[in-house]
Amino acid sequence: MRRTAAVWAGKATGVLSRFSRLGGGTTLPGDVARAIDPDVLRKLSRDLKHGAIVITGTNGKTTTARLVTWLLEGAGHSVVSNRAGANLIFGATAAALERAGANGRLHADWGVFEIDEASLERAVEEIQPRAAMVLNLFRDQLDRYGELEAIAKRIEAALARLPDDSHAVMNADDPRVAEIGLNLKRKPLWFGLDDPAVALHELPHAADARTCPRCGASLIFDGVYVGHDGLYRCPNGDFARPAPDLAATHIELNGFDSVALGVSGVRIELPLGGLYNAYNALAAFAAGNALGFEPAYIAERFRTVQAAFGRQERLEAKGRKLNVVLSKNPAGFNETLRTAVDLAGGHWFLIGLNDRRADGTDVSWIWDVDFERLRGRSRVVVPAGNRAADLAVRLKYAGVEAQPPESDPARAIDALIEATPEGETAHMLCTYTAMLDLRAELVRRGWAKPYWET
Ligand SMILES: [Zn+2]
To answer: Is 341 found in the same domain as 439?
Structure first.
């Protein structure tokens, strides 16, 4: 009874908030339903025919969730997922509610849920997933979740409560994630990259996991892939990267267009660029593997996946190509910058920085982004977003010549278009709400489709 009431109330809230355009209404129905029946997600999860997968980590959750969903759907399964970036437990509840029938029952084969690190323990407890994936653990915007060590402890507590037949799928290349996995009673399924050709030789200057979690010594990195993810070991011999069960080799990076890698005797080609997407592909491959999918099927299916909603988008504007990429924290920004400058050879940039709640209200994290990479390479950089002025100061210290800061989205886009020669590609790297603001202007001009049509 209570569950049916919760489902009905949640559904009604969803309809109301969509009509009133309260930002898509992605978590509010979850809030309402959980207030009526705190166990509603637990009950709905039990209706899933095959079970659920939860995905956590600082970066890559949305793309990885999309890849896992794509695998399951390709095999004819129906999937419930919290795809609108509402990755708290309330968003997962809202997603389940939306698909529940009038009798309060959920009719679906699988659930694929992105979960914030801070909510993982509750999610594992309520959802009882078949697999839990931990992608990476970077410092997010400073004011978001507190210290990495505290977050690691919470993830460890969550994974320790996984059901006995459930798999932990974890990134061996991330020292913080590895330490969590090594402490678990049951060995996780480890994945990692194994290709020195795409590794950097030193950590980015603001890498946040430089020390051994056991003895505090500085870790030795024999190669760095993304942020602090790479081939590491403690000089005192008490901690080292676990050997991956699934290793990606022969990685090919093709700008923002595609990435290819070898794993388990098959060649994975993903129409999404950047080394971080090699990790996302490998993580999803590992999950598919744990769930019993054939490598050849996974490879075939990945060839046709589209970029996850709002992560990366290519547009045309007045004869210029626009490449819009979400870049939400230091590790993410360093990777999109590396891809745009080194791999895609980009010269024309707009960097969008906002300080709303979804972006992180303290923008001091921009000092941890290696904007120095643009120095001498970029021809034009337009600082945009409501904190464009802070960004302009950061760029100045990085020795990067930039246009005057432009917080008005329309004028920022005009400045970028005017500066970019016809036929060339301009890269727009933006925090979450800065991207929404700029995108709204692109939609107004008919250069982008509204999200509900993409
Ligand atoms: Zn040590």
So the answer is: yes
Per-residue pLDDT of the chain (454 residues; tens, 9 = 90+): 688 888 888 887 777 666 555 444 467 788 888 888 889 999 999 999 999 999 999 899 989 999 999 999 999 999 999 865 555 788 888 888 888 888 889 999 999 999 988 899 999 999 999 999 999 998 865 545 557 888 899 999 999 999 999 999 999 999 999 999 999 999 999 999 999 999 988 887 767 778 899 999 999 999 999 989 999 999 999 999 999 999 999 999 998 889 999 999 999 999 888 999 999 999 999 999 999 999 999 999 998 887 655 678 899 999 999 999 999 888 889 999 999 998 889 999 999 999 998 888 889 999 989 999 999 999 999 999 999 999 999 999 999 999 999 999 999 999 999 999 999 999 999 999 999 999 999 999 999 988 765 4
Domain stop point among 302, 320, 350: 302
151 CA → ligand 1 middle, Å: 20
Same domain? 321 vs 405: yes
What is the 182 CA–ligand 1 centroid distance (Å)? Answer: 14
Residues 13 and 155 in one domain: yes
Distance 207 CA to ligand 1 centre (A): 18
Q: Which two tokens stand for residue 62?
A: 């949305």
- What spacing in Å lies between the alpha carbon of 139 and ligand 1's midpoint? 21
The domain boundary residue, chosen from 243, 272, 302: 302
Q: Which domain holds residue 184?
A: 2-302
Task: Report how far ligand 1's centroid is from the alpha carbon of 273 (Å).
Answer: 35
**Whole-prediction pTM:** 0.84
